[in-house]
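Subject: Protein record for review, amino acid sequence with backbone structure tokens
Concerning: The relation between a protein's sequence and the shape of its backbone.
How to read it: Take the token row as a discrete description of the fold.
Enclosed: The protein record, placed directly beneath this head.
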Amino acid sequence: MTRDNAPTGLFTRSAQVDVWQVNAVKPVSYEIRMCEDAFDPADEALLEPASVTGGDRRRFVVIDAHVERLHGERIRAYLDHHRVDYRMHVVEVDETLKELATLEDIVRALDAFSIDRRREPLIAIGGGVLMDIVGLVASLYRRGTPVVRVPTTLIGLVDAGVGVKTGVNFNGHKNRLGTYFPASLTLLDRSFLATVDRRHISNGLAEVLKMALIKDARLFDLLESHGPALIENRLQGSRWGTGRAACEVVQRAIHGMLEELQPNLWETQLERVVDYGHTFSPTIEMHALPALLHGEAVCVDMALTTVMAARRGMASAADRDRILAVMDALELPTWNDLLEPGLLARALADTVRHRDGRQRLPLPVGIGDAAFVNDVTPAELAAAIDDLRTLGTAGRRGAVLEEAA
């Protein structure tokens, strides 16, 4: 959409034609597709778009080193089967390596391989961190090169692989450098989760829980009823069998996320309910590295803001305790020693700058709804920290629930 909904075209403002205004619209279309096996030799979706008839298929593949160790042979067999001329660039990557140096290393290898700008998309295979880095590479290389994504972690499937944001950390700040750049195609293959460890399943469930708390009470009920089994089974199984809950959880999380993102892809509206859990967590995560994963930091933020909502009467004590209990059941942290008033005040100040001068802080309203506040004070933060310190262990919370019963 152009500025102020102005019509597209080229306009002049004076008879001498010494002032020009250009209004243009660029359509945005990208596809996210569930699949059973992204590397089934019979399925060529990964190689979309096809190369020019008669030409060679060439692809530059960026893959997480851990994924390559587990699945590299199968991926190479797929590419060989389809006679693809490819370079597989293996990257050791985690949040501590989400930086310009990693991006530059990828670009150097990409430049050495050389690709056609429009018809030879990059392929990114890995977790959320890799999705963000390769997305930024694609947006910058020759000012825009198509990319196809295959996320292999739960946080990649339900969060990083769904939207259009890219980024790397810089100067001690989370995703301080980044762009908006949609992938041409994202293939979501739950079978990769079978080789993901429990902690990273829980890490992804934090972003699922976020969607439940701010807009989907049914999703919360599913997590409350099936959370431990989802972790144990790593969200495997078909929609008709034992994996029925897993399929619904993933589908609802993705659909809910896209409902929120689609009208506001470029974040022109800064009140975004999907920012829930992302007010204090960027600072907490960067200070805790490598002790906390992204979803774990988000969950600590959500635990704190759940307590804030309860203190304001936006959520009942019963809702608060249900939420904290589900966090425990999902094997997520509800407390971290970094929660101290000074650090959180600085985190909030940085968020205010990010949100154009206002807090725009989403808080849960009960379970399944949210509202924005702009009046959080240092005193309120300190009181919420004290409350969460008391509530932030399963044992203490269990005692509270037993007393209430």
